[in-house]
């Protein structure tokens, strides 16, 4: 009974470390994330101001994730984010009072480099919170949910920006990357990735 187990362990040890081919987009072998081409470019992303308090939280979190050493002096990319926030009640007591709420944060993301769109899409995150008896406690729970949502959406945006920069670096002449028109605004849909 012991021999089959020993044989299995020996076979697994003989395989050694077998890789699946996965490679992190923000790092290369023998380097830190900041030294990789995508890591260097992430540090050159300028994040435009985002309106309201939660927008400031998202912007601060993005700056920390994209360029931890501070905002770039010579930005190569421009990131625009527009946020929409909503709160819905999802749990109720027998007397009709809400006991659970969901805070939904939707970000419209636009990334461009020298007039070329690299990314135009939306990201969504939901953070749940409890309604407690005293009103102040419920306000604190909702504020904490807002802070969690801001952090979650900043992580999501950073991943999308890194993927878009890597796509662009792999093939900057791809026809899906098109130039920005003069009358463009954040509400327009210049997405190079949507089908006509």
Q: Work out the radius of gyration.
A: 22 Å
Low-confidence stretches: 27-33, 181-187, 190-196
Question: What's the CATH H-level superfamily name?
Answer: Lipoprotein like domain
Structural class: alpha+beta
Side by side, the strands of the main sheet go 1-2-3-4
Protein name: LPS-assembly lipoprotein
GO biological process, one term: Gram-negative-bacterium-type cell outer membrane assembly
InterPro entries: LPS_assembly_LptE
Pfam families: LptE (PF04390)
How does the SSE layout of this entry go?
Layout (H helix, E strand, L loop, with lengths): L1 H14 L21 H6 L2 E3 L5 H14 L10 E16 L5 E16 L2 E15 L4 H36 L26
Parallel strand pairs: 1-2
Antiparallel strand pairs: 2-3, 3-4
Word description of this protein:
With 196 residues, the chain is an alpha+beta fold. 36% of the residues lie in helices and 26% in strands. It has one domain (32-170): Lipoprotein like domain (Double Stranded RNA Binding Domain), CATH 3.30.160. The chain has helices spanning 2-15, 37-42, 53-66, 135-170, and strands spanning 45-47, 77-92, 98-113, 116-130. The protein has a four-stranded mixed β-sheet, with helices on one face. The protein is flat, with a radius of gyration of 22 Å. The termini are far apart. The model is unreliable at 27-33, 181-187 and 190-196 (pLDDT under 50). Residues 168-196 are annotated as: Disordered. One of its GO terms (cellular component) is outer membrane. This is LPS-assembly lipoprotein. InterPro entries: LPS_assembly_LptE (IPR007485).
